[in-house]
Automatic annotation (TrEMBL):
Protein name: DUF4111 domain-containing protein
CDD domains: NT_KNTase_like
Keywords: Transferase
Adenylyltransferase AadA C-terminal domain span: 184-256
Organism: Luteipulveratus flavus
Highest taxon above the source species: Bacteria
Transferase found in the keyword field: yes
Length: 270
């Protein structure tokens, strides 16, 4: 494995162990297929300097040619072995070519990938505009050309359109579910408050940020009545903590989470 001096300090030991093991498995599996893994890049929380207990290692693997049946089966076996290895962070991502990265992710053909330990072929995992922007702006190079040298397709107008569509297609349904008296835990607070705040940030600022960055930004732009649940969302993401008052009365947490989501959705007429 090749880790450049510039990126090595960004990788915690558990992440280096994970990528070392994954590369060994994938390289061994690809022997005899005629394909090679020529690039491995990390994005997600790691590229924002945010790696907490329970964080995933999100990767983009670059093959030297499009995956055929033999390559797909080799990768499947490799990731079954990776998923069976204990005491490592989840290793989620997908495999494409450099040429794929130079085009909008919406144009991707079906490709192999893994999410929560499950390998599949299709429109997999995080092969979306957020990942393309993270890779272009701050991707961490584990193997191959430096991420900054890759020709990764980006478009902030397209990302903002994608974010707006995601609010309607996903988050509108999520808030409706919460309003139907669904029990809301601190983990739901983290997922919903920080997730919707991240889209709100992209739409309002024309820039991407991390989930924690979105939470800190939300504390600057949202009314103070929303701050307690934003603080809980950040605390749960970064340390697993929850707000004792919400634990004592989860209905108060539910109303607080819904209020944040409704305020953001209302900004876009939803």
């Amino acid at each position: 494995m090749t880790i450049t001096p510039a990126t090595a300090p960004l990788l915690p030991a558990r992440v280096r162990d994970t990528t070392d093991a994954a590369l060994a498995r994938v390289d061994a599996a690809l022997e005899g297929t005629g394909a090679r893994l020529v690039g491995l890049y990390l994005h997600g929380s790691l590229c924002w300097g945010e790696f907490f207990a329970g964080s995933d290692v999100d990767f983009v693997g670059v093959l030297d040619r499009r995956a055929d049946t033999d390559v797909i089966e080799a990768l499947r076996h490799a990731h079954e072995a990776i998923a069976a290895e204990p005491a490592r962070p989840a290793y989620d991502g997908f495999y494409v070519t450099e040429a794929d990265l130079a085009r909008p992710p919406a144009d991707l053909a079906d490709h192999p990938g893994v999410l929560a330990g499950t390998f599949a072929v299709g429109r997999t995992g995080d092969a979306n505009l957020v990942t393309w922007h993270e890779l272009a702006e701050r991707g961490i190079t584990v193997r191959g050309r430096d991420a900054a040298e890759l020709d990764v397709w980006t478009s902030m107008p397209a990302l903002q359109a994608y974010s707006r569509a995601n609010l309607e297609a996903y988050w509108l349904g999520q808030v409706s579910g919460l309003e139907a008296d669904k029990p809301v835990l601190a983990s739901d607070s983290e997922w919903c408050v920080l997730g919707i705040a991240r889209l709100h940030h992209a739409l309002q600022t024309g820039a991407i940020t991390s989930k924690s960055g979105a939470g800190r930004w939300a504390l600057e732009v949202l009314d103070e009545r929303h701050h307690p649940v934003v603080h809980e969302a950040l605390a749960h993401r970064e340390s697993g903590a929850s707000d004792a008052a919400y634990d004592a009365d989860p209905e108060v947490r539910r109303r607080a989470v819904v209020a944040v989501m409704r305020e953001v959705l209302g900004e876009y007429g939803l």
